[in-house]
Amino acid sequence: MLRNLMLTALAPIVWGSTYVITTEMLPPNTPLLAATLRALPAGILLLLICRTFPKGIWWLRLAILGLLNIGAFFYFLFMAAWYLPGGTAALIMSCQPIFVILLSTFLLKTPLTKMYIASAILGIIGIALLVTNANTRLNWQGIIAGFAGCGCMALGVVLTKYWNRPTNLSLLSFTGWQLMLGGMMLLPVAILTEGIPHQITLTNIFGYGYLCLIGAVFSYIIWFRGIEKLPVVTISFLGFMSALSACILGFVFLKQTFSFFQFIGACIIITAVWFSIPRNKIQTAPQSYNLKKAN
Protein backbone atom coordinates (compact mmCIF):
# COMPACT_ATOMS: atom_id res chain seq x y z
CA MET A 1 0.00 0.00 0.00
CA LEU A 2 2.67 2.52 1.06
CA ARG A 3 4.89 1.57 -1.88
CA ASN A 4 2.04 2.11 -4.35
CA LEU A 5 1.18 5.40 -2.66
CA MET A 6 4.74 6.73 -2.87
CA LEU A 7 5.11 5.66 -6.50
CA THR A 8 1.79 7.25 -7.51
CA ALA A 9 2.68 10.45 -5.65
CA LEU A 10 5.53 10.95 -8.14
CA ALA A 11 2.95 11.87 -10.81
CA PRO A 12 1.58 15.05 -9.16
CA ILE A 13 5.10 15.91 -7.95
CA VAL A 14 6.25 15.83 -11.58
CA TRP A 15 3.20 17.88 -12.62
CA GLY A 16 4.28 20.51 -10.10
CA SER A 17 7.43 21.06 -12.19
CA THR A 18 5.31 22.15 -15.16
CA TYR A 19 5.26 25.79 -13.99
CA VAL A 20 9.07 26.02 -13.87
CA ILE A 21 9.47 24.35 -17.26
CA THR A 22 6.74 26.49 -18.85
CA THR A 23 8.10 29.82 -17.61
CA GLU A 24 11.79 29.07 -18.11
CA MET A 25 11.99 26.85 -21.20
CA LEU A 26 8.91 27.37 -23.41
CA PRO A 27 7.75 30.20 -25.71
CA PRO A 28 5.58 32.74 -23.82
CA ASN A 29 1.76 32.88 -24.02
CA THR A 30 1.30 29.41 -25.56
CA PRO A 31 -0.10 27.28 -22.71
CA LEU A 32 -2.59 25.31 -24.83
CA LEU A 33 0.08 24.51 -27.41
CA ALA A 34 2.30 23.30 -24.58
CA ALA A 35 -0.54 21.11 -23.29
CA THR A 36 -1.11 19.69 -26.79
CA LEU A 37 2.58 18.94 -27.36
CA ARG A 38 2.69 17.37 -23.93
CA ALA A 39 -0.18 14.96 -24.59
CA LEU A 40 -0.39 14.18 -28.32
CA PRO A 41 3.21 13.04 -29.07
CA ALA A 42 3.27 11.10 -25.78
CA GLY A 43 0.12 9.22 -26.77
CA ILE A 44 1.39 8.51 -30.28
CA LEU A 45 4.71 7.22 -28.88
CA LEU A 46 2.99 4.81 -26.48
CA LEU A 47 0.64 3.54 -29.19
CA LEU A 48 3.53 2.95 -31.59
CA ILE A 49 5.15 0.80 -28.91
CA CYS A 50 2.00 -1.15 -27.99
CA ARG A 51 0.05 -1.32 -31.28
CA THR A 52 -3.17 -2.53 -29.68
CA PHE A 53 -6.66 -1.18 -30.29
CA PRO A 54 -9.76 -0.87 -28.13
CA LYS A 55 -12.80 -3.01 -28.88
CA GLY A 56 -16.50 -2.18 -28.96
CA ILE A 57 -17.74 0.22 -26.29
CA TRP A 58 -14.17 1.00 -25.26
CA TRP A 59 -13.71 3.38 -28.19
CA LEU A 60 -16.37 5.62 -26.66
CA ARG A 61 -15.12 5.11 -23.11
CA LEU A 62 -11.54 6.02 -23.99
CA ALA A 63 -12.77 9.12 -25.84
CA ILE A 64 -14.67 10.16 -22.71
CA LEU A 65 -11.69 9.47 -20.45
CA GLY A 66 -9.34 11.27 -22.83
CA LEU A 67 -11.66 14.28 -22.79
CA LEU A 68 -12.04 14.34 -18.99
CA ASN A 69 -8.49 13.40 -17.90
CA ILE A 70 -6.56 15.22 -20.63
CA GLY A 71 -8.40 17.45 -23.12
CA ALA A 72 -11.03 19.32 -21.10
CA PHE A 73 -8.96 19.22 -17.90
CA PHE A 74 -5.92 20.85 -19.55
CA TYR A 75 -8.13 23.45 -21.26
CA PHE A 76 -9.93 24.50 -18.07
CA LEU A 77 -6.70 24.36 -16.07
CA PHE A 78 -5.00 26.86 -18.37
CA MET A 79 -8.14 29.00 -18.57
CA ALA A 80 -8.19 29.22 -14.77
CA ALA A 81 -4.48 30.08 -14.71
CA TRP A 82 -5.08 32.78 -17.35
CA TYR A 83 -7.92 34.54 -15.51
CA LEU A 84 -6.80 33.99 -11.91
CA PRO A 85 -3.58 34.38 -9.93
CA GLY A 86 -1.75 31.07 -9.75
CA GLY A 87 -2.39 30.67 -6.04
CA THR A 88 -6.13 31.20 -6.39
CA ALA A 89 -6.32 28.73 -9.28
CA ALA A 90 -4.43 26.14 -7.23
CA LEU A 91 -6.77 26.72 -4.29
CA ILE A 92 -9.85 26.09 -6.44
CA MET A 93 -8.27 22.99 -7.99
CA SER A 94 -7.56 21.69 -4.49
CA CYS A 95 -11.31 21.16 -4.07
CA GLN A 96 -11.01 18.10 -6.34
CA PRO A 97 -11.06 15.55 -3.46
CA ILE A 98 -14.50 16.82 -2.44
CA PHE A 99 -15.79 16.14 -5.97
CA VAL A 100 -14.15 12.69 -5.93
CA ILE A 101 -15.61 11.83 -2.52
CA LEU A 102 -19.13 12.69 -3.71
CA LEU A 103 -18.78 10.96 -7.10
CA SER A 104 -17.20 7.82 -5.66
CA THR A 105 -19.94 7.61 -3.02
CA PHE A 106 -22.52 7.63 -5.83
CA LEU A 107 -20.75 5.49 -8.48
CA LEU A 108 -18.37 3.28 -6.50
CA LYS A 109 -20.42 3.04 -3.29
CA THR A 110 -17.38 4.21 -1.32
CA PRO A 111 -18.30 4.93 2.32
CA LEU A 112 -18.50 8.66 3.07
CA THR A 113 -16.29 8.84 6.16
CA LYS A 114 -15.59 11.72 8.50
CA MET A 115 -11.87 11.14 7.96
CA TYR A 116 -12.17 11.78 4.21
CA ILE A 117 -14.11 15.01 4.80
CA ALA A 118 -11.65 16.17 7.46
CA SER A 119 -8.69 15.35 5.19
CA ALA A 120 -10.23 17.34 2.32
CA ILE A 121 -10.79 20.38 4.54
CA LEU A 122 -7.26 20.08 5.95
CA GLY A 123 -5.82 19.88 2.44
CA ILE A 124 -7.67 22.99 1.26
CA ILE A 125 -6.46 24.91 4.33
CA GLY A 126 -2.91 23.75 3.61
CA ILE A 127 -3.12 24.86 -0.03
CA ALA A 128 -4.53 28.23 1.08
CA LEU A 129 -1.54 28.79 3.39
CA LEU A 130 0.84 27.60 0.69
CA VAL A 131 -0.25 29.62 -2.33
CA THR A 132 -2.64 32.51 -1.61
CA ASN A 133 -1.96 36.10 -0.72
CA ALA A 134 -4.22 38.89 0.50
CA ASN A 135 -4.06 41.00 -2.67
CA THR A 136 -5.70 38.54 -5.08
CA ARG A 137 -8.62 39.66 -7.24
CA LEU A 138 -11.23 37.14 -8.33
CA ASN A 139 -12.58 36.75 -11.86
CA TRP A 140 -15.83 34.84 -12.36
CA GLN A 141 -14.65 33.27 -15.65
CA GLY A 142 -11.54 31.95 -13.95
CA ILE A 143 -13.55 30.61 -11.01
CA ILE A 144 -15.95 28.76 -13.34
CA ALA A 145 -13.02 27.36 -15.37
CA GLY A 146 -11.27 26.24 -12.17
CA PHE A 147 -14.28 24.36 -10.84
CA ALA A 148 -14.98 22.91 -14.30
CA GLY A 149 -11.42 21.57 -14.46
CA CYS A 150 -11.83 20.21 -10.95
CA GLY A 151 -15.01 18.40 -11.94
CA CYS A 152 -13.50 17.00 -15.15
CA MET A 153 -10.48 15.52 -13.40
CA ALA A 154 -12.58 14.15 -10.54
CA LEU A 155 -15.08 12.48 -12.87
CA GLY A 156 -12.25 11.17 -15.05
CA VAL A 157 -10.52 9.55 -12.06
CA VAL A 158 -13.74 7.99 -10.76
CA LEU A 159 -14.81 6.68 -14.20
CA THR A 160 -11.32 5.24 -14.75
CA LYS A 161 -11.79 3.26 -11.54
CA TYR A 162 -15.44 2.42 -12.30
CA TRP A 163 -14.81 1.10 -15.82
CA ASN A 164 -11.45 -0.46 -14.92
CA ARG A 165 -9.20 -1.33 -17.89
CA PRO A 166 -10.08 -3.72 -20.73
CA THR A 167 -8.12 -6.97 -20.65
CA ASN A 168 -6.84 -6.56 -24.22
CA LEU A 169 -5.12 -3.22 -23.45
CA SER A 170 -1.92 -2.99 -21.43
CA LEU A 171 -1.39 -0.10 -19.02
CA LEU A 172 0.84 1.60 -21.60
CA SER A 173 -1.78 1.27 -24.33
CA PHE A 174 -4.58 2.41 -22.01
CA THR A 175 -2.55 5.51 -21.13
CA GLY A 176 -1.51 6.12 -24.72
CA TRP A 177 -5.05 6.16 -26.09
CA GLN A 178 -6.17 8.69 -23.51
CA LEU A 179 -3.20 10.96 -24.16
CA MET A 180 -3.58 10.78 -27.93
CA LEU A 181 -7.35 11.34 -27.98
CA GLY A 182 -7.10 14.15 -25.43
CA GLY A 183 -4.25 15.73 -27.41
CA MET A 184 -6.25 15.53 -30.64
CA MET A 185 -9.10 17.40 -28.94
CA LEU A 186 -6.69 20.12 -27.79
CA LEU A 187 -4.88 20.51 -31.12
CA PRO A 188 -7.46 22.55 -33.09
CA VAL A 189 -8.20 24.76 -30.08
CA ALA A 190 -4.50 25.46 -29.57
CA ILE A 191 -3.88 26.28 -33.23
CA LEU A 192 -6.94 28.53 -33.52
CA THR A 193 -6.29 30.47 -30.32
CA GLU A 194 -2.48 30.58 -30.16
CA GLY A 195 -1.11 29.59 -33.54
CA ILE A 196 2.42 28.26 -34.05
CA PRO A 197 5.45 30.02 -32.51
CA HIS A 198 7.55 31.82 -35.11
CA GLN A 199 10.78 30.55 -33.62
CA ILE A 200 11.61 27.39 -31.67
CA THR A 201 14.92 27.29 -29.80
CA LEU A 202 16.89 24.31 -28.54
CA THR A 203 15.78 25.22 -25.01
CA ASN A 204 12.14 25.11 -26.15
CA ILE A 205 12.70 21.65 -27.66
CA PHE A 206 14.18 20.34 -24.40
CA GLY A 207 11.23 21.85 -22.51
CA TYR A 208 8.65 20.22 -24.76
CA GLY A 209 10.59 16.95 -24.57
CA TYR A 210 10.49 17.02 -20.77
CA LEU A 211 6.75 17.73 -20.71
CA CYS A 212 6.11 14.91 -23.18
CA LEU A 213 8.37 12.15 -21.82
CA ILE A 214 8.39 12.93 -18.09
CA GLY A 215 5.30 15.12 -17.65
CA ALA A 216 3.04 12.85 -19.70
CA VAL A 217 4.44 9.39 -20.57
CA PHE A 218 6.06 8.64 -17.20
CA SER A 219 3.65 10.50 -14.94
CA TYR A 220 0.38 9.31 -16.50
CA ILE A 221 1.51 5.68 -16.62
CA ILE A 222 2.15 5.66 -12.87
CA TRP A 223 -1.00 7.77 -12.27
CA PHE A 224 -3.32 5.31 -14.03
CA ARG A 225 -1.47 2.41 -12.39
CA GLY A 226 -2.16 4.05 -9.05
CA ILE A 227 -5.86 4.36 -9.85
CA GLU A 228 -5.93 0.58 -10.37
CA LYS A 229 -4.03 -0.19 -7.16
CA LEU A 230 -5.29 2.40 -4.65
CA PRO A 231 -8.64 3.67 -3.36
CA VAL A 232 -9.82 6.44 -5.66
CA VAL A 233 -10.35 8.96 -2.84
CA THR A 234 -6.77 8.47 -1.64
CA ILE A 235 -5.59 9.07 -5.22
CA SER A 236 -7.41 12.41 -5.33
CA PHE A 237 -5.62 13.65 -2.21
CA LEU A 238 -2.25 13.08 -3.89
CA GLY A 239 -3.13 15.99 -6.18
CA PHE A 240 -2.22 18.28 -3.27
CA MET A 241 1.41 17.29 -3.84
CA SER A 242 1.43 19.18 -7.15
CA ALA A 243 1.04 22.60 -5.50
CA LEU A 244 3.60 21.64 -2.85
CA SER A 245 6.07 20.55 -5.53
CA ALA A 246 5.54 23.76 -7.52
CA CYS A 247 6.24 25.94 -4.47
CA ILE A 248 9.38 24.04 -3.49
CA LEU A 249 10.75 24.07 -7.06
CA GLY A 250 9.94 27.77 -7.37
CA PHE A 251 11.89 28.41 -4.17
CA VAL A 252 14.88 26.32 -5.32
CA PHE A 253 15.13 27.33 -8.99
CA LEU A 254 13.28 30.65 -9.33
CA LYS A 255 14.36 32.21 -6.01
CA GLN A 256 10.73 32.59 -4.92
CA THR A 257 9.93 33.07 -1.24
CA PHE A 258 8.96 30.22 1.06
CA SER A 259 7.60 31.67 4.29
CA PHE A 260 6.87 30.14 7.67
CA PHE A 261 3.15 30.03 6.85
CA GLN A 262 3.92 28.22 3.60
CA PHE A 263 5.94 25.68 5.58
CA ILE A 264 2.97 25.17 7.91
CA GLY A 265 0.73 24.76 4.84
CA ALA A 266 3.10 22.14 3.43
CA CYS A 267 3.00 20.19 6.70
CA ILE A 268 -0.81 20.34 6.73
CA ILE A 269 -0.96 19.04 3.14
CA ILE A 270 1.24 16.04 3.98
CA THR A 271 -0.91 15.37 7.06
CA ALA A 272 -4.09 15.50 4.95
CA VAL A 273 -2.67 12.98 2.47
CA TRP A 274 -1.63 10.68 5.33
CA PHE A 275 -5.07 10.85 6.97
CA SER A 276 -6.74 9.97 3.66
CA ILE A 277 -5.06 6.54 3.57
CA PRO A 278 -7.56 3.82 4.58
CA ARG A 279 -6.56 1.99 7.73
CA ASN A 280 -8.29 -1.35 7.08
CA LYS A 281 -7.56 -4.06 4.57
CA ILE A 282 -11.05 -4.05 3.11
CA GLN A 283 -10.72 -0.51 1.83
CA THR A 284 -7.14 -0.88 0.65
CA ALA A 285 -7.78 -3.87 -1.57
CA PRO A 286 -8.08 -2.92 -5.26
CA GLN A 287 -11.61 -3.11 -6.52
CA SER A 288 -12.92 -3.85 -10.00
CA TYR A 289 -16.18 -2.31 -11.03
CA ASN A 290 -18.33 -3.59 -13.85
CA LEU A 291 -15.46 -5.84 -14.94
CA LYS A 292 -17.62 -8.02 -17.11
CA LYS A 293 -19.14 -5.02 -18.83
CA ALA A 294 -15.72 -3.43 -19.26
CA ASN A 295 -14.40 -6.39 -21.15
UniProtKB/TrEMBL annotation:
Sequence intervals crossing the membrane: 32-50, 62-83, 89-108, 115-134, 140-159, 171-193, 205-223, 230-254, 260-277
Domain EamA: residue ranges: 6-131, 141-276
Subcellular location: Cell membrane
Membrane topology, from the record: Multi-pass membrane protein
GO cellular component: membrane
Pfam families from the UniProt entry: EamA
Keyword S-adenosyl-L-methionine on entry: no
InterPro entries: AA-Vitamin_Transporters (IPR050638), EamA_dom (IPR000620), EmrE-like (IPR037185)
Keywords associated with the record: Cell membrane, Membrane, Transmembrane, Transmembrane helix
Cytoplasm among keywords: no
PANTHER family: EAMA DOMAIN-CONTAINING PROTEIN, INNER MEMBRANE TRANSPORTER
Family from the record: Belongs to the EamA transporter family.
Protein name in the entry: Integral membrane protein
Species: Xenorhabdus stockiae
Higher taxonomy: Bacteria, Pseudomonadati, Pseudomonadota, Gammaproteobacteria, Enterobacterales
